[in-house]
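Problem: given the chain below (261 residues), write out its structure.
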Amino acid sequence: MDLGINGKWALVCASSKGLGKGCAMALVREGVNVVVTARGAEALEATAAELRALSPAVQVRAVAGDITMPEGRAAALAACPQVDILVNNAGGPPPGDFRDWGRDAWIKALDANMLTPIELIRATVDAMAGRGFGRIVNITSAAVKAPIDILGLSNGARSGLTGFVAGLARSSIAARGVTINGLLPGAFDTDRLRVTMAGLAQKTGQPLDAVKAQRAGTIPVRRFGSADEFGAACAFICSVHAGYLVGQNILIDGGAYAGTF
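Solution.
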């Protein structure tokens, strides 16, 4: 299927590794020019080289910096001639007990997982509407749908973004060709999951392979997701075929969420 986005420009945040990288790779395969961002310059440049090798005809620009800071956002936006596609993504805040979190912890979580995406949307959405096409995808978490008690910072910040977007997505921009949707990942085989599994193995004294197998066994498909399949879902949402998909939050978790709705 031709997704109809060849030649468009995308800004993909936190894209040197994991799900962000998967999204960038899928978009490049569709002929989309990309600006990739991350804090780690070395990993980012390695990813940019991979992306260029995928499709030499596509322009790939790497901007190292912290997207949660004004200067990081400014640099990323300046590198993108026009933002037709915006993929908002950021690492989640640490787990813990809400009794241990003061105001600073909450503000940091909100800055990264709610306010930064909103700032990037604010900087790009009107120009998208003026051109008659725009796709905004917010990578949040399955915890938006099914909150996890130790992930209160993430539950709160990402749910705040989801609530804000629910209204904006259905405003006048929808009639001007701009869609905003959320992708809610479950357990994917990323560095973050590997670190979590390693920590659990150390804590419980179990072999790492056993911990992984036990966790995967709780998922109906009996495996973790891959960044490639997540990226493919993102690319479709960004396509010309997804113009009637507005304000939705799509759970990609291998069936782990057991609810009907």
